[in-house]
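The instructor's notes for this session suggest beginning with a concrete chain rather than abstract definitions. Hand out the sequence below and ask the class to guess, before any prediction is shown, which regions might be ordered.
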Amino acid sequence: MSSKPISLQEIREKINAIDSDILRLLEARGEVALQVADVKRQQKNDPVIYRPEREAQMIRRYQEQFQGALDSKDVGSIFRAIISSCRSLQQQQTIAYLGPEGTYSQQAVIEQFGPSVKLIPVVSIEEVFNTIKRGDARYGVVPIENSTTGMINPTLDNMIQSPLKICGEVNVKVECHLLVRDPENAPVEVIYGHPQILAQCNQWLAKHYPTAKKVSVNSNGMAAKMANDDSKVAAIAGPLAEDHYELARLASHIEDNPNNTTRFVVLGNNEIEPSGDDKTSLLITTPHKPGSLLELIKPFASNDVNLTSISSRPYEHQMWSYIFFIDIDGHYKDEKVQKALDALGKEPIMYNILGSYPKAVNS
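After discussion, reveal the predicted structure:
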């Protein structure tokens, strides 16, 4: 005898029961978060609430343990939102980023910190640094590297002089859309975008809009705002700007590289403890003589430390000398990283640890 098929109403009743269980667990999660805040305040007047290493460990573990139908990235996003809401019960985090609203930097903030934060949009990457140093924001998020166009020089230049530490990183898939106010009446004469984004869409623009004037602006959010003000203007921006400024797409995914990704870093004043899967960023100056770069790399190779990125900027205090920015696998407290840094310190080389922090989590 065949069993009676389950009805849609019965399935909905199951969902309602599960959702009721989730609500009860969220209530319990919030109560425990408040207890954590009380304990931290008893130990310290101004406790550190944002713990990226702890959050990274949690999300990685939940993604690994989950065996259901949801994608692991969705699982990460759900728990990121839960962690964000519970963190805000302890203390709302203020985050500076390159504005205005609708930028990829804002998207990076949301992906890293979740939705329950206070956003402070500022006019430049330099002002992100300044906002944290003034104490107007606890943390800041800035772009540091793009998979297509390379390092973001304004960020590197500010890192040279800044006492701030890198506390975390997040990788944002860059979706570039050509946005206008009115797609039915859009004789595009000018296309606005951040210089990095214009470069990342250069081939597509040359093919489809060879005569349109391309104009660089400070951010893609600003480009979207300008497109909203003028029907003859188009902006290159992402879904966040599209929604915020109520724009329409003339074209989707116009980036030359479909895997185009920007790496953002979190800036703050506190050092981060090891998470078990970390990265360390270093700023290094070497003597201006043959073999200096080899001497810089050798300690990492001999101690089995993977060097994942190296770039340079001119050193303003000495002509034709350079400052190197290096990323390595591991935390500076890891034994083999310590050995590499000790060996590096024995050479006529100066280095500064910009931060050790959890690698970006796929959420």
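Then share the key points. The chain is about 40% helix and 25% strand. The first helix runs from residue 8 to 43.
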